[in-house]
Specification:
The chain is mainly α. It has a single domain, classed as Transferase(Phosphotransferase) domain 1 (Transferase(Phosphotransferase), domain 1, Orthogonal Bundle), CATH 1.10.510. 36% of the residues lie in helices and 7% in strands. The chain has four helices and four strands, in the order αββββααα. The strands form two sheets. The protein has a two-stranded antiparallel sheet. Helix 1 runs antiparallel to helix 3. The longest helix is centred in the N-terminal third of the chain and has 20 residues. The model has no long low-confidence stretch (mean pLDDT 91).
């Protein structure tokens, strides 16, 4: 699913996000933390339904540890706890989902910067700017 500066309608975004939520819930129920949710890894099948791809960074979380500590993922979609190396859980997938939703509605990523250090600072320290074009429901 490629987002190219053209926002999705809120109804379309709601549909796709709902399907991604179901996919993430299924993975989490199976003990899998996906860790690489981004538009490039969201595919649509021939009927227009979401399929996640590229499980190369997915982690099967065992009951022997409470948090994951590996620094990995696509920089723009990293959750603050990954950047700050605090250890993390499946919550990082929900963070990335929020980034994807923002990108669907705005046509741009909420944290993208030319400089990676500036982007990481934005992710870890600055609130997301909600655009005037977003409805209250969004």
């Amino acid at each position: 699913m490629k987002v190219q500066n053209t926002p999705f309608s809120e109804d379309d975004a709601k549909f796709y996000i709902a399907e991604i939520v179901l996919a993430l819930q299924h993975l989490h129920d199976k003990g899998v933390v996906y860790r690489d949710l981004k538009p490039e890894n969201i595919m649509l099948d021939h009927e227009g339904h979401v399929k996640l791809s590229d499980f190369g960074l997915a982690k099967l979380k065992s009951s022997s540890f409470k948090q994951i500590n590996t620094f990995c993922g696509t920089p723009e979609y990293l959750a603050p706890e990954i950047i700050l190396e605090k250890g993390y859980t499946k919550s990082v997938d929900w963070w990335a989902l929020g980034c994807v939703l923002y990108e669907m509605l705005a046509g741009k990523h909420p944290f993208r910067r030319k400089n990676r250090a500036d982007m990481y600072e934005s992710i870890t320290k600055k609130p997301v700017k909600m655009l005037e074009s977003f409805s209250q429901e969004a």
